[in-house]
Amino acid sequence: MTRDSQMMIAKRAAAELQPHSVVNLGIGIPTLVAKYVESDLVYFHTENGMLGVQELRNEEEFDPSLVNAGKLPISEGIGASYFDSAESFGMIRGGHVDVAVLGALQVDEQGFIANWAIPGKNIMGVGGAMDLLSGAGKVIVTTNHTAKNGDPKIVHTCSYPITSLRKVDMIITELAVFTFEAGKLVLKELMPGVNLAEVREKTEAAFKISEQITAVR
Amino acid sequence: MVEAVPPLPQEWDGPAFPKDEAPRRFLLGGLGFLFIQMAERSFCLSIKEVMIMQKQMKAEEAVQKIQSGDTLMVGGFGLVGAPLTLIDELTRHDAGGLTVISNNLGEPGRGLGILLRQGKVKRAIGSYFTSNREVGDFYHQGKLEIQLLPQGTMSESIRAGGAGIGGYYTKTSAGTELAKGKEVREINGELYVLELPLKANVALVKAAKADTLGNLVYYKTARNFNPLMAAAADFVIAEADEIVEAGELSPEEIVTPHLFVDAIVESRLILSKEGVVSK
């Protein structure tokens, strides 16, 4: 997974974010999404207690007590606010966060996501993953199309423990963009230079091909 | 000087007296008012002063409240908003067999990670221990019990503990491995999991500023679990970078009112751009 393809995924996810929406970005590729959001009217929420997250613009702004959920330094946007963890998760669980952009270990053809635990290994962390799934308005998954060992990540059925009974709404990888229509996985867009054969080869899940399939802009 | 109390006006059009005095004059009448004034000036004020003196103390004195087998809540998201001075003091305190409720268990050999290495932690309740790989090692060796909770559930359970709520239902974790053994109930066609409150014997919290009464204000994302934990323990020790006189904090800015706080300690260790340093 090159830096270029990560940025391509982040850029495509950024195009999904509407002005006046409240968005929570997960750790990894999702964090990069903020770089590509052009509107000033997208408000970033971080579950450790802040609305109005802005990227750190320079070294001088660095404040060790101002971090996002990935413990990376951030800065204060205009109109930012701070709150405690219960209020922050109340926002998430109460349906006040419009979009969550999350990474995944696996997503299956029904839309179930596994992104918190690997079988056979000690389960040592869950963080806010289950809360975001249960409460966010729309869930966008940004992930490499396959795992490091080449195994497909978009699968028939998750073999890893699922994160929620709630299903995701969209999957963006370095190869393609998928959505769900009537509970079925649908291929909507191909990334530049990617052909359908490659997507088929690297996807275990059954998917339909949208009649309006397009190339990612 | 006691003035006669006027009858209640037919139509209330704002207080006839200075705002802070009007309601209680109306309620208590002249004699009651006289009593309160006298009591405030002599008796009550001196009690308040004694209480203030008792709240401010040294870290080593405050942690004496912690006994072996206690359940502790410790604020912080990683090191941000963690009561570093109190944690440091705890490494020199001999209480062991502790149950620690904290989002993480420090890092290897740092923060609560020191306590883990010292074998003082029997059980950890939190949402994300991945930042300290030694937690997994201790768990494997049977030296540590772990209860993993979704971060929102952990926060809400602490809030419930502090607010006298006996439990609540949430959709979070329904249908997953973390809901195993928990009561599940269908509400309006969706599955919810029963979660119980969390409480502790002692909470260690970190504030930016405290006043001598124990009112607390926080700084940026260092707030996190601290105000919740301050409400959910029998004895609450607040560590603050700065301690000011009562009255110096604006009532509007106070996040944790003093009734939650039992002891106030000034920070010796703080999180700076260079990492954890002595103040």
Topology:
The complex is a heterodimer of chains A (217) and B (279).
Chain A lengths: L2 H12 L7 E4 L3 H4 L10 E4 L3 E5 L20 E8 L2 H9 L5 E4 L3 E3 L4 E2 L14 H7 L2 E5 L11 E2 L14 E3 L3 E6 L2 E7 L5 H7 L5 E8 L2
Parallel strand pairs in A: 1-2, 1-5, 5-8, 6-9, 8-10, 12-13
Antiparallel strand pairs in A: 2-3, 3-4, 6-7, 10-11, 11-12
Helix pairs in contact in A: 3-4
Chain B lengths: L21 H34 L3 H4 L8 E4 L9 H7 L7 E4 L10 H6 L3 E6 L6 H8 L4 E4 L2 H13 L4 E3 L13 E4 L2 E6 L4 E12 L4 E2 L8 H6 L1 E12 L18 E4 L2 E4 L2 E4 L1
Low-confidence stretches of chain B: 1-19, 21-30, 32-36
Q: Structural class of the secondary elements of chain A? A: alpha/beta
Helix content of chain B: 25-40%
**Count of helix runs of chain A:** 5
Major beta sheet summary of chain A:
10 strands, mixed
Number of helices of chain B: 7
Whole-Å distance between the termini of chain A?
Answer: 20 Å
Helix-strand pattern of chain A, N to C? Answer: HEHEEEHEEEHEEEEEHE
Query: Level of helix content of chain A?
Result: 10-25%
Strand content of chain A: 25-35%
How would you characterize this protein structure?
The complex is a heterodimer of chains A (about 220) and B (about 280). Chain A has about 220 residues and is of the alpha/beta class. Helix content of chain A is about 20%, strand content about 30%. Chain A has helices spanning about 5-15, 30, 85-95, 130-135, 195-200, and strands at about 20-25, 45, 50-55, 75-80, 100, 105-110, 115, 140, 155, 170, 175-180, 185-190, 210-215. In chain A, helix 3 (about 85-95) packs across helix 4 (about 130-135). The longest helix of chain A is centred in the first third of the chain and has 12 residues, at about 5-15. The model of chain A has no long low-confidence stretch (mean pLDDT about 95). Chain B has about 280 residues and is α/β, with parallel strands linked by helices. Chain B contains 7 helices and 13 strands. In chain B, strands 1, 2, 3, 4, 8, 9, 10 and 11 form an 8-stranded mixed β-sheet that branches. A 3-stranded antiparallel β-sheet of chain B has the order 5-7-6. A two-stranded antiparallel ribbon of chain B has the order 12-13. In chain B, a hairpin with a 4-residue loop joins strand 8 (about 200-210) and strand 9. Residues about 1-20, about 20-30 and about 30-35 of chain B have low confidence and may be disordered. Chains A and B meet through helix 3 and helix 4 of A and helix 5, helix 6 and helix 7 of B.
